[in-house]
Amino acid sequence: MTSIPQTQTAWVATTRGPPSKVLQVNQDYPVPTPTKSGDVLVKIHAAALNPAGWKIMTIAPNFVWERPYIPEVDVSGVVVDANESQFSNGDQVVGLISTAVQRSTHQGALSQYVFLPASQLVLKPSNQSFSSAAGIPTVGQTALQALRTTPKTIFVNGGSTSVGIYTIQIAKSMGLRVVASASGRNEAFVRGLGADEFIDYTTEPPHVYLTRNSPTPLFSLVLDAAALIDPSLYRHSEGFIDKSGMFISVGPWPFGRGWKAGLLGTMKYLWAVLQPGWAGGVKRSWKMITVTRRQADLQKLCEMVEAGTVRPVTDSTYDFNDVLDAYNQLMGGHVVGKVVVNVIPERGGQEGEGG
Ligand SMILES: NC(=O)c1ccc[n+]([C@@H]2O[C@H](COP(=O)([O-])OP(=O)(O)OC[C@H]3O[C@@H](n4cnc5c(N)ncnc54)[C@H](OP(=O)(O)O)[C@@H]3O)[C@@H](O)[C@H]2O)c1
């Protein structure tokens, strides 16, 4: 069995603020000890960043998200203490640290070791490196769960977002017709994922395009994977969503233009989605989704990846020392695929194997 050190190197968010101001390396951070049987200790090989990671770090007050804590939740690695779970030491796994575990234990993916309930882990697809597999859990499950509404045709607003990348591929595997938006430079990429029709959102707002070119049949689902705070897409959706269809947002994001503009934007958005149809509101269902950690969903995704039905896409990889550069890349807002931190350096395109 691999010897487990008492301390590790971890990136720790010490107070509220952006990564460049509040993230610090701690080379003497305790390696967590599983407290109950079934909690599995994983030696992390790669961690994938999510926009939620820097948003929580920057916005969430201490009483909501206690500091210090280790950010990020998507990991791949090797089991080093299976602790009476269904896993064995040496298993290569991928997992998602739940909000509950992160908040109660202050653990996160930007460290060398993490323990998490076996129910938050599955075996890594054998055809993926640790690096690409780390990016599967959050965005893959979000896409899979959005598609549980069993649509027939779908518009993915933000086809080059990581959520959009999975949504298009899974939707195509379900036989759906897919229309997707992105900026023109990503057209070939988005079509390559399987999109049947493409809208360049930099040329014309998608709601304008879709109102003029009303789809036949109308969409049964519009997924706003770009998390727009501008409600125009929903406001005009009667022109392109079927009466029984649905608009799903991954969570409209109000910040970035200052608090006042953010607050105003939120109020406008809330009014657009809450105003009842009989009072002039939009007569289409709206809901916001938050990813639910389900082992069965993660298992299904990994099987789809293993079968080649779904291809994980990595925008860029960074060394463990370069976490701040990785955040800069993600926060630029134009990544295509996951930004991944290799906690253990890749060797010849594949991270070092074993525990
Ligand atoms: N609800 C949940 O549980 C959940 C789960 C995961 C993610 N999210 C949220 O979902 C959003 C997307 O996350 P992600 O990780 O998929 O994002 P991401 O990969 O970081 O998204 C980057 C992409 O967004 C595209 N984009 C930016 N503005 C756009 C617009 N107006 N229209 C269309 N595309 C646009 C960019 O394309 P261009 O360079 O071409 O502009 C870029 O390719 C974030 O707000 C995240 O917090 C929510």
From TrEMBL:
Q: Which Gene3D superfamilies match?
A: Medium-chain alcohol dehydrogenases, catalytic domain (3.90.180.10), NAD(P)-binding Rossmann-like Domain (3.40.50.720)
InterPro entries this protein is in? ADH-like_N, ER, GroES-like_sf, NAD(P)-bd_dom_sf, YIM1/Zinc_Alcohol_DH_Fams
Example GO molecular function term?
oxidoreductase activity
Where are its TM segments located? none
Q: Which domain of life is it from?
A: Eukaryota
SUPFAM superfamilies given for it? GroES-like, NAD(P)-binding Rossmann-fold domains
Write out the GO cellular component annotations.
mitochondrion
Ranges of residues in domain Enoyl reductase (ER): 21-341
Alphabetized PANTHER family for the sequence: ALCOHOL DEHYDROGENASE RELATED, RETICULON-4-INTERACTING PROTEIN 1, MITOCHONDRIAL
What is the name of this protein?
Enoyl reductase (ER) domain-containing protein
Question: What species does this protein belong to?
Answer: Pisolithus microcarpus 441
Please spell out the taxonomic lineage of the organism that makes this protein: Eukaryota, Fungi, Dikarya, Basidiomycota, Agaricomycotina
